[in-house]
């Protein structure tokens, strides 16, 4: 039976996953159902340790669920997909390679017919888009943390993935740099359409970047709460101080508190 939808890039159907630990089985996700529309940006929030990062590994095909199925554009995910890009809190750039060489790395791994010149041109286009023009030949250690994260985003997008998974990508940055990168993400979405999945603990980040926010329950995680986030064509940081945004943040905080209490009770 197929559960695919033409409007959904990712479909998660009745997914359950459990880890085997030294002290026994650790249920992490239970009967999770989610759909992520094509070219939308979905933020996933929840208590620490509730299974958010496990969810990214399941969507990317790095893990297989114990039960249930996950579909990417109607096809069941059974292995890692080259059409999925990933960016993490730690940019993990290779110090012995220049920034442009780091960015083109996926194009050296994912099969394609691009020449080296074409790969470099593709990388330069992205670096210009995120404000790193002129830093192509620098080494990662010569860049600030925010600049390294910009390069990491370029690397995740260079092979034009259908899905971009962001696992706490801005969590280690200072507040001003983080907010600057939120604006960069909006620019990237305009120029490089993709279906985004953002894992974050920052509720402000979730409503500023995402079209919808999913709150996971306490472990074992299931879908507890869902909210649509209205967006303007050119989102401004000032919008986070609007009455509508403040109301959304209050609701999300309340849901997180409920999930945290549930997780404590399940220990």
Structural description of this entry:
This protein is α/β, with parallel strands linked by helices and 267 residues long. It has a domain of 147 residues: Rossmann fold (3-Layer(aba) Sandwich). The chain is built from eight helices and ten strands. The strands form two sheets. A six-stranded mixed β-sheet has the order 6-7-8-3-9-10, with helices on both faces. It has a four-stranded antiparallel β-sheet with strand order 2-1-4-5, with helices on one face. The longest helix is centred in the C-terminal third of the chain and has 24 residues. The chain is globular, with a radius of gyration of 19 Å. The two termini are 36 Å apart.
CATH architecture of the domain at 1-78 and 199-267: 3-Layer(aba) Sandwich
Write the CATH fold name of the domain at 1-78 and 199-267: Rossmann fold
The largest beta-sheet arranges its strands as: 6-7-8-3-9-10
Look at the structure and give the mean pLDDT: 90
What's the overall geometry?
A: globular
Q: Going by CATH, what is the homologous superfamily of the domain at 1-78 and 199-267?
A: P-loop containing nucleotide triphosphate hydrolases
User: Using DSSP, what is the number of strands?
Assistant: 10
The helix/strand class is alpha/beta
The number of helical segments is: 8
Rg from Cα: 19 Å
Seen as an oligomer or otherwise, the chain set is single chain
Helix-strand pattern, N to C? EEEHEEEHHHHEHEHEEH
Regions with little confidence, pLDDT below 50 for 5+ residues: 1-6
The level 1 CATH classification of the domain at 1-78 and 199-267 is Alpha Beta
Largest sheet: 6 strands, mixed
N/C terminus separation:
36 Å
Q: What is the helical fraction, as a range of percent? A: 25-40%
Q: Indicate the proportion of strand residues.
A: 25-35%
